[in-house]
């Protein structure tokens, strides 16, 4: 689950409700092999319902800012 903290997650057998899912078909070619699979995205783990309950606020990972400047000297 994207944007979830490493300490929170779902397990096999959990009932999962997904509000406003975005279904995407992924197709990747790698070393002559084709990999095709479906992906479901939601805006936040807090928009899920797991076993009839919303995840706690602590399930959402804090934002992280990553900067890079390829033209800067090392």
TrEMBL record:
Its signal peptide is: none
Residues of the Tetratricopeptide repeat protein 5 OB fold domain: 1-61
One Pfam match, given by its short name, reads TTC5_OB
Renumbered to this chain, region (Disordered) spans 54-74
Protein name, entry field = TTC5 protein
Q: Which organism is it from?
A: Sinosuthora webbiana
Give the encoding gene's name. Answer: Ttc5
């Amino acid at each position: 689950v994207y944007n979830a903290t490493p300490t929170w997650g779902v397990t096999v057998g959990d009932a999962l409700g997904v509000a406003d899912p975005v279904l995407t078909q992924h197709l990747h070619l790698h070393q002559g092999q084709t990999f095709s699979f479906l992906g479901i995205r939601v805006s936040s783990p807090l928009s899920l319902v797991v076993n009839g309950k919303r995840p706690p606020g602590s399930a959402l990972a804090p934002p992280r800012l990553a900067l890079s400047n390829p033209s800067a000297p090392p």
